[in-house]
Amino acid sequence: MPFNGNTRLRSEMGMDKQHLSSLPSRPIAFCGLLIWALSCVTAQAGTASPSPTEHYRLEQHGGGLGVDIDESVVVLAVGDTSNGQQWVIERLRRDRNWCGKQTADGKCSARDVTVHDWAASSTCSAVNFYVAGFADFRQTGSEQPTLLVTDSPLVTLQFTAAAKGKPPHVLKEYAGPLVSWWRDAEVGLKPCWTTEPPVIDGRPLVARLTPPKP
Question: What is the SS3 string spanning the chain?
Fold first, then answer.
């Protein structure tokens, strides 16, 4: 075939166009990889364990005449991107009663029950009401319990969030307004308790209270 300069030029230009058309695929592929990596990081950050803030801690221990209570309660403020801040109450309680149940022939039988459960304001509005009640006792509660010969457990309330590096403000009662209020709160919160921790931003809340080993 005779040499034709125009044919060769068109051929070389066609090759250059093909070569150039393949170049943008590399930065596009890199950008796609970068976007994928960023999405992975974002996804991992979105599923990180929430960091709740403990505001109050209530302890109830003791008793008598064969009836004993060991209870720990923490009140947490938890941020949720979908529901905003919510309150969560975590409870670990053990009840021992020498006559907690009866046999078929009417005799007393010991009962030893431990519960570990949660109540969240996102699913039970009563939680907001009783959390507000904790704050009321900061000014009215007693720091030193009256010494009593009693079969009642000692109820202790700590204002942990207000401590700011200092020992938390602590109230203690064997009998009094705090004890009476907590008895009412136990009744009011009864329908709120669930054995499953609340899900915050797609992840179950990590327990702060640890049941004793059997």
Answer: CCCCHHHHHHHHHHHHHHHHHHCCHHHHHHHHHHHHHHHHHHHHHHCCCCCCEEEEEEEEEEEECCEEEEEEEEEEEEEECCCEEEEEEEEEEEEEEEEEEECCCCCEEEEEEEEEEEEECCCCCHHHHHHHHHHHHHHHCCCCCCCCCCCCCEEEEEECCCCCCCCCEEEEECCCHHHHHHHHHHHHCHHHCECCCCEECCEECCCCCCCCCC
